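Hypothesis: this fold can be encoded by more than one sequence.
Test: take the structure tokens below, design a sequence, compare later.
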């Protein structure tokens, strides 16, 4: 009985994952950051299947991995919620809409390119995309700086300066921040263990 209930629940979650990723991918313009905002609203705020910190962690990993950020993030969210099958379902749901839309557009590319109505619509979408990306940036910044340590502030400012002022390679900046964060975490864990061992004595 419990097994059948679990299967039904899992099927419901898989369908929700596919449907959500398909609709968001089909109706979203502006790339990975925009899609992440909508995935966050759905799975964190509406469904409560994952929390904000997990989305931040998954986004950071997706940004650091090869491939399309939107697909990487949806795969990781799917895996986190429903395991390997969830990852496959979210990947298919995210990839299908652009594949279908681009296949249709490629057949009529010349007409689309010279159509003034399409041009105006795309310009309007750019404004909407900018607004959504600004919202994502503010949300992610708030999540990072809330209770942030001094090291986090230093890395945040240094990374921003490196990218905006010195035009540093984003991948290199992410790798350096990841290594520094990893070393800092390792040292913190060692110190905590040493403190526990000292208290036990």
């Amino acid at each position: 009985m419990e097994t059948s209930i679990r299967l039904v629940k899992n099927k419901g979650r898989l369908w929700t994952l596919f449907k959500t990723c398909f609709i968001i991918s089909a109706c979203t313009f502006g790339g990975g950051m925009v899609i992440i905002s909508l995935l966050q609203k759905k799975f964190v705020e509406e469904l409560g299947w994952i929390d904000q910190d997990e989305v931040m962690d998954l986004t950071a990993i997706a940004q650091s991995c090869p491939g399309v950020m939107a697909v990487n993030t949806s795969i990781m969210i799917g895996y986190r919620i429903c395991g390997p099958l969830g990852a496959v379902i979210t990947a298919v749901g995210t990839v299908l809409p652009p594949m279908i839309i681009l296949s249709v557009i490629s057949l009529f590319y010349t007409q689309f390119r010279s159509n003034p109505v399409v041009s105006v619509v795309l310009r309007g979408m750019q404004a909407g995309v900018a607004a959504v990306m600004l919202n994502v940036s503010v949300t992610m910044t708030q999540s990072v700086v809330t209770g942030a340590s001094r090291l986090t502030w230093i890395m945040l400012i240094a990374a921003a300066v490196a990218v905006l002022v010195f035009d540093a390679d984003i991948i290199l900046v992410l790798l350096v921040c990841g290594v520094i964060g990893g070393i800092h975490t390792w040292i913190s864990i060692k110190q905590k263990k040493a403190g526990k061992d000292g208290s036990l004595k």
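The helical segments are 2-27, 32-46, 52-64, 69-107, 109-114, 116-145, 150-164, 170-200. The radius of gyration is 21 Å.
Hypothesis status: open.
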